[in-house]
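in:
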């Protein structure tokens, strides 16, 4: 699963400590899948499970995790899906353990809310008939957990638009791309003190992919018609729409500037994406891929095939992008105080009315 590093202008766990959470996510995903699978195969609910809670992971050595890696490496038979999970980013996980995870310069205060809010504990909601059904159940619950991590920290929280839980493109990227991919989904950047919403950014270990989505009516045909406007054809109806290249070029300009200022050497690839429509671009646009309904399946299959583990330059690019985004959130403590104060406030006003 691609890791949802930034969603809109929501506060993100990854902003607090980018060095820790990517490897923690991979570890948590692996361990909880094995727990859920063992529970399904045995038919018995596992109440005690040898795992590292995220709270403990932040403060304890990673002996259990290293032991578990060695155990899984010697398994003779694994499904292809499990092999993907086990192999993705393994090399970088060891690098992070050795050099990064034990260095907590910005350690967050830990309390009971940490485990309840951020500990991923999937449950078997019904009894799946096949391992594939179990995987789908697991991935759906993990997707919900990813949105939690991309919209809340221990101290802060952002209001999540419910549409993201139903967003099929967001699900496709998070559920089907490798763990080593870092996803920025419609982030809002602060450019000269002004908020600028852009499209989708995927940071792979080897490149930065900027994606402008062009999806409206099903079977719509988009025809390039001048530099600023394109023509959208749905049946016999023609309508002008803003050229997706405007937003795409603006996105590239913002990313390229951040990369240049911080000496980030990562190639940028530009994509105009329409999963449910067709793109007719008779001209030539250097450096832009036009992916429509006819090409989407092959393009996505190729996108999934990147065996590289997470790289230092990828982390560096993600960190400086996160440093430039806008975040809108509220303080959890303030919310709790307001909730606790509401009854007393009502009581006082009621007494005043009686007197």
């Amino acid at each position: 699963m691609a890791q949802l590093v930034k969603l809109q202008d929501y506060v993100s766990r990854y902003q607090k400590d980018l060095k820790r959470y990517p490897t923690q996510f991979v570890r948590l995903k692996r361990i909880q899948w094995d727990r859920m699978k063992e529970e399904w195969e045995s038919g018995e609910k596992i109440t005690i499970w040898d795992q590292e809670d995220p709270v403990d992971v932040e403060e304890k050595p990673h002996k259990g995790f290293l032991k578990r890696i060695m155990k899984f490496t010697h398994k003779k038979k694994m499904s292809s899906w499990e092999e993907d999970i086990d192999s993705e980013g393994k090399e970088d996980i060891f690098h992070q353990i050795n050099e990064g995870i034990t260095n907590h310069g910005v350690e967050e205060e830990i309390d009971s809310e940490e485990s309840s809010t951020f500990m991923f504990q999937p449950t078997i909601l019904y009894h799946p008939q096949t391992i594939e059904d179990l995987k789908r159940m697991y991935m759906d619950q993990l997707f919900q957990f990813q949105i939690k991590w991309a919209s809340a920290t221990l101290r802060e929280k952002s209001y999540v638009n419910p549409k993201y839980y139903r967003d099929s493109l967001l699900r496709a990227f998070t559920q089907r791309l490798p763990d080593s991919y870092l996803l920025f989904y419609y982030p809002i950047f602060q450019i000269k003190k002004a908020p600028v919403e852009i499209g989708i950014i995927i940071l792979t270990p080897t490149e930065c992919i900027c994606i402008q989505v062009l999806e409206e009516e099903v079977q719509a045909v988009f025809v390039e018609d001048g530099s600023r406007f394109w023509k959208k054809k749905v049946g016999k109806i023609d309508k002008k729409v803003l050229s997706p290249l405007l937003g795409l070029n603006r996105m590239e300009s913002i990313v390229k500037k951040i990369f240049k200022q911080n000496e980030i050497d990562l190639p940028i690839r530009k994509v105009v994406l329409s999963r449910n429509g067709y793109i007719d671009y008779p001209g030539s646009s250097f450096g832009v891929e036009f992916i429509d309904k006819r090409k989407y399946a092959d393009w996505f299959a190729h996108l999934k095939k990147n065996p590289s583990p997470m790289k230092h330059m990828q982390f560096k690019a993600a960190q400086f992008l996160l440093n430039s985004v806008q975040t809108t959130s509220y303080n959890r403590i303030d919310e709790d105080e307001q909730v606790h104060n509401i009854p007393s406030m009502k009581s006082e006003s009621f007494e005043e009315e009686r007197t």
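note: Confidence is low (pLDDT under 50) at residues 47-118, 342-355.
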